[in-house]
Amino acid sequence: MRIVKFDYRFLEDVISIHCPKWKEMPLSMRIRDCGYWGDPEVFSWYIDALLSSDGKILMALKDDTLIGEAEIVPERLKCPVGDHAYLQMVWVKEGERGIGVGRRLVEECGKLAREMGFYALDTIPYDEAIPFFEALGFSEIESQVLMEAKPRPAPEQPKIEEIGKRELPVAVQMLAGQTRPSALLWELLWGREAVGLPPPRVFKVRVGLWEFVLGLFRPTADDNYLYALIWGPERASLGQIFDSAEMALSIAYDMGATKVRTQTWCKYRGAFEAAGFEAIKRIKWMRMQLKKD
Q1: pLDDT by residue (tens digit) across 132-181?
Q2: Is 198 a member of any domain?
Q3: What is the DSSP letter of 291?
Q4: pTM value?
Q5: Apex 210 CA angle, 204 and 215, nearest 5
Q6: Gap between the terminal Cα atoms of the chain
Q7: Number of domains making up the chain
Q8: In this structure, are 106 and 184 located in the same domain?
């Protein structure tokens, strides 16, 4: 088995190990079930976004046949859990699991993280993968909560301004929606319609002395909810985070949405509950500390 850098010649092979029946499924179902890894055009767009965020993709090959894939992205912006490289994906082909492919891919990602200057490798694992990551030395350092609310008008309307891709909020951190590094999430907001995904709406909102950035989008054309990303100042109070959550609901209401979902840090949960969000599921944020050379 060899671990090598990603080659576009294997693009459809990567999709096939994630989503074996992708050729038989409509786009919306592939994206719903397999995410960005369910369609060649969408995955190619995703790769461009990942590489633009300084990410790396590795492949595990056996006799020139793809049997596994992993992705790592540095978090270079402010983050509530501090500096880290993020293990975005580890996936092994069915029939090749349990023989150390995933372990090798994670080890190589750890080496890449150190080369990037990070000594913490973070991930949000699927529930069924938690024992695998624990066996590799990952442990929970923080938690998030997936939440949902019904949109409604805000009692007060602060000034809002719709913004574009060049206005990346580098001076703020993610308060909600951080399921991967902030810069990658920002890249993935743009160009969605070109690959058949619903376009986003992105706004700058002033709450008191602070500016927040809100991004809202439907994950697929079949989804009946908007997903919210919220960036805000590191020193924002729970009251100001509550205001930003209310504004996300108000903008969603104006967009005609019936539900809004987001995934916030548990320490901000109270602010979102006060705005009307209800918890759906608690999610572990895990880390493996890397040895310094």
Answers
A1: 999 999 999 999 999 999 999 987 777 899 999 988 877 889 999 999 99
A2: yes
A3: P
A4: 0.94
A5: 30
A6: 26
A7: 2
A8: no
Which DSSP symbol is given to 93? -
Q: In this structure, are 26 and 52 located in the same domain?
A: yes
Q: Indicate whether 135 and 7 sit together in one domain.
A: yes
Phi-psi region of 142 (alpha: psi -120 to 50; beta: other; left: phi over 0): beta
Position 290 in a domain: no
Contacts by residues 161-168 (CB-CB < 8 Å, ≥ 24 positions apart): 161/203, 161/204, 161/205, 162/201, 162/202, 162/203, 162/204, 163/202, 163/203, 163/204, 163/213, 164/202, 165/189, 165/190, 167/204, 167/213
Cβ contacts of 223 within 8 Å, gap of 6 or more: 32
Task: Outline where DSSP puts E strands in 134-277.
Answer: 139-149, 160-162, 173-176, 201-207, 210-217, 226-232, 260-265
- What domain range is 98 assigned to? 2-143
